[in-house]
Design a protein that fits this description.
The chain has 643 residues and is of the alpha/beta class. It folds into three domains: 198 residues, Aldehyde Dehydrogenase, Chain A, domain 1 (3-Layer(aba) Sandwich); 201 residues, Aldehyde Dehydrogenase, Chain A, domain 2 (3-Layer(aba) Sandwich), CATH 3.40.309; 185 residues, Aldehyde Dehydrogenase, Chain A, domain 1. Helices cover 41% and strands 17% of the residues. Helix 2 crosses helix 6, helix 3 crosses helix 4 and helix 15 packs parallel to helix 16. The chain starts with 12 loop residues before the first helix and ends with a helix.
Length: 643
């Protein structure tokens, strides 16, 4: 902490006003720039990032306290984001892919180049000018990235850097009506504040929020202990535990817990702490004194409760930085944990084999749903966990960090974020005011064959058949023709139940599944509007809870008995656990409802209006599954290729 890396002048109120005016003035020209030209500039920037690798790596190490290996991975991810979004946006047509306008990107300090570049690249690729507010702890590497993007041909007014504190610079930008979209990675609490601020403004201002997680790894008695220990060390202590995806709770089956824990403690003792500029160092400092003090307070509180704690001693040289001793804390129940501890602290929980389902349910009950790991040699256990776990990224027989762009699209659900997943096929489309939706590779798609999917397909087909028969009696004039158009759009855009095979390294199977959000709400005053909401819910595999209004009661009573199992009317719908809210009404009513919805506690809830269709991509969860097939004896599909 005695070394000065650089200086920063934080943005003033006048700076913000000039930047907002410039971004607004540049919006039309940047949106009209051919998508191919925007993509070429992002690809040029990727090449410049690689050319300037020495500077970017040094900044990552010196400013953010990253190890050299982490810095290299960070640069690779930033380059991947630039090229991935450039490729995805290349075919966008400005007539059908309509940009939002100025987008605010608020990025974190733990990935000050990769996440910063990913947010900026996505917004620019979609045709939006960017106001980039990096974390106050890491403005230097962001500034160098912006210089390179400008050198690559991104106009100055289309990308402006506004360093400063979140409470001042960030809050002022979020509240300004000229900002037409917000991308945020950070804490759950700040994401909720941003959501409420946007709701208070009114209008349809998209928020893409990726927040934290109480990430768990489940290890059963069939797992290979040596591999478990290697993967746990990487997952929990790499980057000093300062990853959204980092392992927070290791769940060990009782039968093997003592042996695995003994090996883990021994392996942890071999790690080296210190200045990450030394290539021999494994674990560096946490980001600042506030982070260190919070982590130390947690360890002290657990110790006061009588928890068994293993801690590495801190070398004397660590006194010059904000270091936290890597710690293993044994706990008796998940309920002992409060908020996420964002640092090199691993909690260990023992469980019995008979308690697997209840363990998964307890993990889900935390409300977070970012990453999870499972180590097992039993395929049925993998399927059991995958079916029950509500997480965005599930990793099997490997570590749970280091998601690769386009291979493991990253992002969670519940308290862990709003979706869509970064580095996935839906992301850019959330940054557009109007879009025909993503084009998915047909050859890589498969329908998930499950009872749930088959039942959802039958319900959707049954509804459309009923609508063309007895259901038409609820409609007037040309309402049936309009709903048929909506049905055609639903058929074309429905993705619930699909599995997308993703490219990945040899020895790993990666896929992205689109699953229903569960129960969504619908608020509408006409039979046609209610029927449209029923259609959207069934097309996305969800159940629908209708606000208790006359039209809702009429439609629900008229539905066939088999469909009434999917559609209910409830005066107390607002207080239920929901995945989204569909609303059909005036913009003023939508704004008022959005304020109420944003005021709910718990996960950020999206309010969708038809334009003229509901966005079915926002009514599903994206869940990535990554399986280390080599750990199970090899990839059978590879072995079959030679036959």
């Amino acid at each position: 902490r005695g070394e000065v890396v650089g200086g920063v002048a934080e943005a003033t109120t006048d700076d913000l006003e000039h930047a907002l005016a410039a971004a607004s003035a540049a919006a039309a020209n940047w949106a009209a720039t051919p998508a191919a030209a925007r993509s070429e500039r992002l690809e040029r920037a990727a090449a410049l990032f690689e050319r300037e690798a020495d500077t970017l790596l040094a900044l990552a190490v010196r400013e953010a306290g990253k190890s050299w290996a982490n810095a290299v991975a960070e640069l690779r991810e930033a380059v991947d984001f630039l090229r991935y979004y450039a490729q995805q946006a290349r075919g966008f047509d400005p007539a059908s892919h309509v940009a939002l306008g100025p987008v605010l990107c608020i990025s974190p300090w733990n990935f000050p180049l990769a996440i910063f570049s990913g947010q900026v690249a996505a917004a620019l690729a979609a045709g939006n000018p960017v106001l980039a507010k990096p974390a106050e702890q890491t403005p230097l590497i962001a500034a160098h990235a912006v210089r390179l993007l400008h050198e690559a041909g991104i106009p100055a007014a289309a990308l402006q850097l506004l360093p400063g504190r979140g409470e001042t610079v960030g809050a002022a930008l979020v509240a300004d009506a000229r900002v037409r979209g917000v991308m945020f990675t950070g804490s759950t609490e700040v994401a909720a504040l941003i959501n409420r601020s946007l709701a208070a403004r009114g209008g349809k201002v998209p928020l893409i929020a990726e927040t934290g997680g109480q990430n768990a790894m489940i290890v059963d008695s069939t797992a290979l202990p040596e591999q478990v220990v290697t993967d746990v060390l990487a997952s929990a202590f790499d980057s000093a535990g300062q990853r959204c995806s980092a392992l927070r709770v290791l769940c060990l089956q009782q039968d093997i817990a003592d042996d695995v824990l003994h090996m883990l403690q021994g392996a942890l003792a071999e790690l080296r702490l210190g200045n990450p500029a030394d290539v021999r160092v494994d674990i560096g400092p946490v980001i600042d004194a506030g982070a260190r003090d919070g982590l130390e307070a947690h360890v002290a509180a657990m110790l006061a409760k009588g928890a068994r704690i293993t801690r590495l001693p801190l070398p004397a040289a660590c006194a010059h930085g904000t270091f936290v001793a890597p710690s293993i804390i044994e706990i008796g129940a998940l309920s002992e944990l409060g908020r996420e501890q964002f640092g090199p602290i691993l909690h260990v929980l023992r469980y019995r084999a008979s308690e697997l389902d209840s363990l998964i349910d307890a993990i889900d009950a935390s409300g977070y749903g970012l990453t999870m790991g499972v180590h097992t040699r039993i395929d049925e256990t993998v399927e059991r966990v995958a079916a029950r776990a509500h997480v965005g990224n599930l990793y099997v027989n490997r570590n749970i960090i280091g998601a690769v762009v386009g291979v493991q699209p990253f992002g969670g659900e519940g308290l862990s974020g709003t979706g869509p997943k970064a580095g996935g096929p839906l992301y850019l489309h959330r940054l557009l005011a109007r879009t025909p939706g993503p084009v998915l590779a047909d050859g890589a798609l498969a329908v998930t064959d499950s009872d749930e999917t088959r039942a959802a397909d039958a319900a959707f087909s049954g509804f459309l058949e009923w609508l063309d028969g007895a259901g038409r009696g609820l409609l007037e004039g040309d309402e049936l023709a309009a709903l048929r158009d909506r049905a055609d759009a639903c058929r074309a855009r429905r993705i619930a139940g699909l599995r997308l095979a993703l490219p990945g390294p040899t020895g790993e199977d990666d896929s992205l599944r689109f699953t229903a959000r569960g129960t969504i709400a619908g608020v509408a005053d006409s039979a046609a509007a209610v029927l449209h909401q029923v259609m959207a819910a069934l097309a996305s595999g969800n159940r629908l809870l209708l606000a208790d209004r006359a039209a809702a009661r009429t439609v629900q009573a008229a539905l066939p008995e088999a469909l009434r199992a999917y559609v209910a009317v409830d005066a107390a719908w607002f207080d239920k656990a929901l995945g989204a809210v569909l609303f059909d009404g005036s913009d003023a009513e939508a704004d008022a409802l959005q304020v109420r919805v944003a005021g709910r506690s718990g996960p950020i809830l999206q309010l969708l209006q038809p334009c003229p269709d509901y966005d079915l991509g926002r009514l599903v969860h994206e869940r990535t599954l990554s399986i280390n097939t080599a750990a199970a004896g090899g990839n059978a599909s590879l072995m079959a290729m030679g036959a």
